[in-house]
Design goal:
Layout: H1 3-11
Length: 19
């Protein structure tokens, strides 16, 4: 998971991107 994933997790903690 990269830095971009952190932003996505912050916006949607329920969603876990495979980045």
């Amino acid at each position: 998971m990269g830095p971009a994933a952190r932003c996505i997790i912050r916006r949607k903690p329920n969603v876990l991107p495979l980045v």
